[in-house]
Design brief:
The complex is a heterodimer. Chain A is of the alpha/beta class. Chain A folds into 2 domains: 234 residues, FAD/NAD(P)-binding domain; 127 residues, FAD/NAD(P)-binding domain (3-Layer(bba) Sandwich), CATH 3.50.50.60. Chain A is built from 9 helices and 20 strands. Chain B is mostly beta strands. Chain B is built from 1 helix and 7 strands; from the N terminus they run ββαβββββ. The longest helix of chain B is centred in the middle third of the chain and has 7 residues. Classes of the chains: A alpha/beta, B mainly beta.
Chain lengths: 371, 102
């Protein structure tokens, strides 16, 4: 069995900053990462970041990932286990990890769960055909491995991810036949929408996908117009020839480990689904478990990195490694997060977080996994 | 198909290796995942669904969704989207639930 002060699950933006914060304050840290490299979703984000100027705006996700990964590699206090999957957390503070077909036991004083999110699926006929991919999968193939996901694509969803990935597809030389969006408005930033429109890609609002067509893989997509109540309008069906249908219809927190560990959860739509209850230091209802990033609620990487820092700092202060007073630094991080959430989307997230602190209506939606 | 020119990214491809997919020789670059290598070779169907035998391929590509399970060197239910391809690997389409015992 391995012992450590702080164990971080997930080496994405939140997990990396949490680990660095704890390690900089002389704690021994282990990161467990499922993939063979650190960085999480940042490693495929070729676009420049929006958001806080102080927090990496104008820098590409891939560059942020590299910077953080390099710092972690050089850090004497951090050990990274890659191609390693967390299996379960037990009452005695032991987490089991599977790596190379072997089970490793790790005992930690504090656990920080930063497992990120998974992509949402959409219900339509033949949605299981090869060629129907999540936007993240398209980015992985294209930006990480340099492999084209297809030749002709229909993008479902005109939020920021749908728009940005459409632009990335165009950069890679793929033809995007259309972007369709079920609501009456483009959800993402208009600067992204304008960019792809200028490139000649039509964006159809009030449209949804009815079915995928194809035998062994996608050959076409049938789309349909929706009325104001999101019902299909008969006779408006249109078939678009495409070999790939890309779904950019949102994310949901990946919370299995938190549920299994017995943390109190609640369904909070503002945060993207089921999330753990936690205090403003990102501590869950288990005194030894913290959470950070998309696992705590769907947001973007800048917020995830700040949450990671807060969780890492608070966790390290509780294992007794901290020399200085943490209050001023914690306050600074929390203030930055607050500023970041001052826009319209941030307001919704703040409402959700209020619920997740258990001080308003989360009560009726709370649940704990029975042990 | 592999991207040759990109305005932002440069793809540094590692050493070429070969592995087999359903008995067929496939070329890949060291460092890429099994699913990525198959995809580059034009293979989109990775397994058959266990109940209705429908074709299945990648969906999430980050090890969450189980849509890319294949039999690798005799071991079923390997997440090929997060498992690196290796020289001489024997990869097969997975049929059914992927039993360890025939």
């Amino acid at each position: 069995m391995i012992e450590t002060d702080i164990l971080v699950i997930g080496g994405g933006p939140a997990g990396m900053t949490a680990a660095l914060k704890a390690a900089d304050n002389s704690a021994q840290v282990i990161i467990v990462e499922k993939y063979h490299q650190l960085g999480g979703q940042l490693i495929k984000q070729t676009h420049r970041f929006f958001g806080s100027k102080k927090e990496q705006a104008g820098i590409r996700g891939i560059e942020i990932a590299k910077k953080l990964t390099d710092r972690i590699k050089e850090h004497n206090n951090i050990k990274v286990l890659t191609e390693a999957t967390a299996q379960g957390y037990y009452e005695d503070g032991i987490l089991t990890v599977s790596q190379n077909n072997k089970v490793i036991k790790i005992k930690s004083k504090k656990l920080i769960i930063a497992t990120g999110a998974s992509e949402k699926m959409l219900s339509f006929k033949n949605n299981d055909l090869p060629g129907v991919y999540g936007a993240g999968a398209v980015q992985t193939l294209m930006n990480l491995y340099g492999i084209l996901p297809g030749e002709k694509i229909v993008m479902v969803g005109a939020g920021n991810i749908g728009l940005i990935v459409t632009y990335q597809l165009l950069q890679a030389g793929v033809k995007v036949e259309a972007v369709i969006e079920a609501s009456d408005k483009i959800g993402g930033y208009l600067v992204h929408a304008s960019k792809i429109r200028r490139a000649g890609v039509p964006i159809y609002t009030n449209h949804s996908i009815k079915r995928a067509i194809g035998d062994r893989s996608v050959e076409a997509a049938e789309i349909v117009k929706l009325d104001n109540n999101w019902n299909e309008i008969k006779g408006t069906e249109k078939i678009i020839k495409a070999d790939t249908i890309c779904l950019a219809v949102g994310l949901r927190p990946l919370t299995d480990l938190l549920v299994q560990a017995g943390c109190e959860m609640a369904y909070i739509p503002e945060l993207g689904g089921d999330v753990p209850l936690r205090d403003d230091n990102l501590k869950t209802t288990n005194n030894d478990i913290f959470v950070a990033g998309d696992t705590a609620g769907i947001e973007e990487a800048t917020a995830a990195m700040l949450e990671g820092e807060i969780a890492g700092l608070k966790a390290v202060s509780e294992v007794g490694h901290l020399k200085n007073n943490i209050f001023s630094e914690l306050k600074r991080l929390k203030d930055e997060l607050k500023k970041l959430r001052s826009g319209p989307e941030g307001k919704v997230i703040s409402q959700g977080i209020k619920k997740a602190r258990g001080d308003s209506n989360a009560g009726k939606n709370r649940y704990t996994h029975l042990r | 198909m592999r991207i040759k020119k990109h305005p932002v990214l440069e793809f540094k491809r590692d050493k070429k290796i070969t592995f087999t997919y359903n008995g067929k020789q496939i070329e890949a670059y060291q460092g890429e995942t099994i699913a990525a290598a198959l995809y580059a070779a034009g293979i989109r169907v990775l397994k058959a669904s266990s109940k209705y035998d429908r074709p299945r391929g990648l969906f999430c590509a980050i090890g969450n969704c189980s849509s890319c399970h294949m039999v690798v060197d005799g071991i079923p239910n390997v997440k090929t989207c997060i498992t690196k391809v290796k020289e001489g690997m024997v990869v097969q389409e997975e049929i059914g639930k992927g039993d360890l015992i025939d």
